[in-house]
């Protein structure tokens, strides 16, 4: 039985649900929330619209949980994975879908503790494929294999050269671009690592190492995807260096793009937990 038509209330949110649901299932399996802004970028819509689509998903899953055959295995509240960029919490509308422990929690930390258990349940839920079949929505959000293959074949065309150097220098001398204090210490360009790699930019602060990988505006999709994987590698190498040196240092990474990230780049970055900034200018 396909019940999507029955649950479709004719709104734009209902029409967009098939695009958002696979993303939330992906995040559930990763046990990782995603911000409204990140969802908006991945879907190419305004961030305010995400709230309404997530709410429609919440009501849809609640309705399915009340159906015969689903009462013993109700779908977890997937829309709780969509959180505010600042607080890291879902909107107030989530209260009706979670236990009273959440709504009664007096601090954000207490609310996050409740959500952690909710996310753990969602990560181990075994019936996502069957749920997607019921709604006639593809379980897989789309194969990213081709984008990864392009990254393998990418030789960094457009990665080096004057455009890359200008953008790298501009970001290194303007730490506020990546969220650090304006006017603070500049980043080190081409910082060597123990693995033999060179990080485009490394900002070092007390107790923090912040690595930045830079791709110019004309970088190909393959080169941008390669940048995501480079960030992943730099994060692990810097963490390993800190462990060997017996230092307590937080490690952050970000991919800075001079151009606009493609949908594949956005999806891969979210899946791997890599932050990125797009359309960053060199002036």
Task: Describe what is shown at a glance.
The protein has 283 residues and is of the alpha/beta class.
Question: What would you note in describing this structure?
Answer:
The chain is an alpha/beta fold and 283 residues long. The chain is 47% helix and 13% strand. It has a five-stranded mixed beta sheet with strand order 3-4-5-6-7, with helices on both faces. Strands 1-2 form a two-stranded parallel sheet. Helix 11 links the parallel strand 6 and strand 7. 34% of the residues are buried. The model has no long low-confidence stretch (mean pLDDT 90).
Top keywords for this entry?
two-stranded parallel sheet; 283 residues; 5-stranded mixed sheet; Trna Endonuclease, Chain: A, domain 1; 2 domains; alpha/beta; 7 strands
């Amino acid at each position: 039985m396909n019940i999507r038509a029955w649950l479709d209330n004719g709104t734009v949110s209902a029409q967009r649900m098939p695009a958002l649901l696979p993303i939330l299932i992906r995040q559930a399996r990763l046990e990782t929330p995603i911000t409204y802004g990140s969802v908006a970028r991945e879907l190419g819509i305004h961030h305010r619209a995400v709230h309404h689509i997530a709410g429609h998903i919440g009501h849809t899953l609640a309705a399915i949980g009340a159906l015969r055959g689903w009462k013993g295995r109700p779908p977890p509240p997937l829309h709780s994975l969509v959180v505010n960029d600042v607080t890291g919490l879902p909107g107030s509308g989530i209260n009706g879908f979670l236990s009273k422990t959440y709504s009664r929690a007096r601090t954000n930390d207490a609310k996050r503790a409740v959500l952690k258990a909710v996310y753990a349940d969602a990560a181990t839920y075994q019936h996502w494929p069957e749920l997607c079949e019921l709604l006639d929505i593809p379980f897989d959000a789309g194969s990213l294999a081709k984008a990864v293959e392009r990254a393998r074949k990418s030789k960094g065309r457009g990665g080096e050269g004057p455009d890359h150097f200008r953008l790298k220098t501009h970001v290194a001398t303007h730490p506020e671009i990546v969220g650090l204090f304006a006017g603070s210490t500049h980043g080190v360009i081409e910082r060597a690592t123990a693995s033999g790699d060179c990080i485009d930019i490394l900002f070092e602060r007390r107790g923090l190492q912040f690595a930045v990988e830079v791709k110019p505006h004309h970088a190909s999709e393959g080169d941008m995807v390669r940048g995501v994987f480079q960030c992943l590698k730099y994060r692990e190498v810097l963490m390993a260096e800190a462990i060997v040196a017996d230092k307590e240092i937080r490690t952050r990474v970000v991919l800075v793009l001079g151009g606009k990230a493609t949908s594949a780049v956005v999806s891969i970055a979210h899946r791997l937990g890599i932050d990125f900034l797009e359309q960053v200018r060199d002036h």
